[in-house]
């Protein structure tokens, strides 16, 4: 094979590898790895955006949503134009164009194929291209309202061991008797923060007590593949109660998490939407709610 065409093939393969790496690592750091899995076959495939359960929000929830909306507007207005990475993309494009042209027309290492300097330049160009493509992807996913820096503090999840409430706390007709949606959603938000924090530290013992056997098995498998601790900044968490129903002796609850997060020092935040399924024996209100499945929301 002509060495010039071999050089082009090498560059093409390296570019494909960089793009593939961008997609593979986008969801690898957060808990669950951006996959759908769980104890039921239906949990193992993506879900369409579900409708929210018809429950009236409390005053606390309404106030929090108003504050989050104000902070999101301030954050969106304050976002600099330079964060889009246009200069890096332009330089990367010019560099890659020059290198490919050099290889095609015999400019690399005297016309005999790429030399060491050429390969170093190619590697630098691919790195810049990778950074540019990834920043564009994250900017597109996070193009919605972004907070100006909401501080997420982990709340105690101990109250989640007893959320059945009393019979006097009657909710809507579609909810199980004694189920307190406000109290449950406070716990749902706290457990999301706690599980993500435990995943960042690879604290599998803590994750185990809040997950079913099937979910824990999958998360443990991901921890073996990616054992290094990470850092995930949860900028905004908006949980929505989708469904709460009785299935035999179990109370099954579905929660839609709409989250803005930033991973491992990334400069851009991104939106993440997942449907989490919890269950608990209705006759054992002292038990923890267990995470039985995670479904990705179809875009």
Automatic annotation (TrEMBL):
Biased composition regions of type Polar residues, renumbered to the chain: 39-64
SUPFAM superfamilies the UniProt entry points to: NTF2-like
Sequence segments annotated as region (Disordered): 32-80
Sequence ranges of Low complexity compositional bias: 65-80
Keyword set, alphabetical order: Membrane, Transmembrane, Transmembrane helix
Entry-linked Gene3D superfamilies: 3.10.450.240
Transmembrane segments: 6-22, 87-109, 115-133
InterPro entries: NTF2-like_dom_sf, Tim44-like_dom
Residues annotated as domain Tim44-like: 166-296
Record protein name field: Transport protein
Organism per entry: Desulfovibrio subterraneus
